[in-house]
Design goal:
It is a single chain. This protein is of the alpha/beta class. The protein has two domains: 7-127, Rossmann fold (3-Layer(aba) Sandwich); 142-279, 2-Layer Sandwich (Alpha-Beta Plaits). 44% of the residues lie in helices and 19% in strands. The strands form two sheets. The protein has a five-stranded parallel sheet with strand order 2-1-3-4-5, with helices on both faces. α2 packs parallel to α3 and α8 (176-197) packs antiparallel against α9. It is globular, with a radius of gyration of 21 Å.
């Protein structure tokens, strides 16, 4: 595998789907290996480490969950990005895949352009060591953990977490590209508020795909938080098509903003785990 031409391993027992994915991603410049059985996927990863695995859950021998478990518990293969490709839509199935360390999840029938973007994002995230979010380019992962840890040794800090709820319902209704556009727009609006109303040392990052975290000073928290809430709540309806704007429940649950805050005066906190426990209680 090279950085320019990463190997994609497609694990899919439907030969038509496997052949289509092989042809599509080969044209995109990737080297593609296809296998139809779970055990063959394990052996293929051992023989030539892929850059990413597209993994069906329903396989003729062991299921995709078992394949993911064995990849994640092997030191050589534990960091390979995994995208589950499956007909299962239940929330429990998605959670099970994510608990096993899957990087993403897409259900059949799928949009191959959407899958291409998910593959691109997963590969980019892997190459960058999860230091920045591939959609918003905001710091995430270890960079956020480092900033939160620094709070333990400082005074007069404030944390604001901005959560975008029900993005999954929006994505299922309007597609992956539209949901990415929402995240980019939300991140830009928050950045603009922080630039205009925050302090020079403020830090903005992402806790996960739909949670933004701002480290600021207690004296600016209220004003910045109110401005962020007002801007985002005013904007949310405009992400929907005109026919669906202002119509509650169409389609699915509507996106909404939820905010949590934590002040240094609520401490002291003995470690990062305790700080997070207070923040998300």
């Amino acid at each position: 595998m090279t950085e320019e031409n990463p190997i994609i391993l497609v694990v899919e027992d439907d030969l038509d789907v496997a052949d289509m994915l092989n042809a599509y991603f080969s044209v995109q410049g990737y080297e593609v290996i296809t296998v139809n059985w779970g055990e063959d996927a394990i052996r293929a990863c051992g023989a030539s480490l892929p850059g990413l695995v597209i993994l069906d859950i329903r396989l003729p021998d062991i299921d995709g969950y078992e394949v993911a478990h064995r990849l994640r518990t092997n030191r050589r293969t534990k960091d390979i990005p995994i995208i589950f490709l499956t007909e299962k839509r239940e929330r429990g199935d998605r959670l099970k895949g994510l608990e096993l360390g899957a990087d993403d999840y897409i259900t059949k029938p799928f949009d191959v352009q959407e899958l291409r973007l998910r593959v691109r994002n997963a590969l980019r995230r892997s190459a960058e060591g999860t230091l920045t979010n591939p959609v918003t380019n905001l710091p995430e992962g270890s960079l956020v953990e480092e900033r939160l840890t620094n709070c333990l040794n400082r005074e007069d800090w404030a944390i604001l977490v901005v959560s975008l709820d029900n993005l999954e319902s929006f994505r299922e209704a309007y597609g992956f590209v539209a949901s990415d556009d929402v995240l980019r727009a939300i991140s830009l609006m928050i950045q603009n508020v922080v630039r205009d109303q925050g302090g020079a040392s403020d830090f903005l990052g992402q806790l996960d795909a739909t949670q933004f975290i701002l480290l600021t000073h207690p004296t600016t928290l209220l004003e910045v938080g109110d401005r962020i809430r007002n801007r985002l709540e005013q904007a949310l309806d405009f992400f929907y098509p005109l026919k669906d704007r202002g119509v509650e429940g169409l389609p699915g649950k509507r996106m909404s903003i939820r905010m949590q805050q934590l002040l240094s005066s609520q401490g002291p906190f003995k470690d990062l785990a305790e700080l997070k426990a207070f923040l998300f209680q």
